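Q: What would this chain look like folded?
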Amino acid sequence: QVQPVESGGGLVQAGGSLRLSCATSGSILRLDWYRQAPGKQRDWVALITRDGSTSYADSVKGRFTISGDNGRNTVYLQMNSLKPEDTAGYYCRATTTFGTFWGQGTQVTVSS
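A: My prediction, written as C-alpha cells:
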C-alpha cells in the first residue's frame, strides 16, 4: 500500500472530540494533515516528521495533537474542543522516499 488511508471521521457536537487515523506504508519522512471545507481551499492543519517533530496551524493549536506509532506507519490526529469551523474533509499527505501521496479523505462534521 502506497496511498494513505484515513479513517475516524464522523459527526460530533461542538466541544466534542474525534481521533483520525492515517495508515501509510513505506519509508515515511513526513506526514501532514490538511482539511478542505465546501467551497474553500485545502488548508494545512498539522505535521509530524520522522524524528517526531510536530507543528500546527494557528487555528487548531492547543486543540489538536498529531502523533504516530513507533514506526510512524499509522499517524493520528486527536481533535478536541471541536468547533463548527472545523467541519471539513480531512486528508493526510505522506512524504516518502518514493514520492508524495494523498489519501482520499475522511469527513468531519461538527454541529452547533
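The mean pLDDT is 94.
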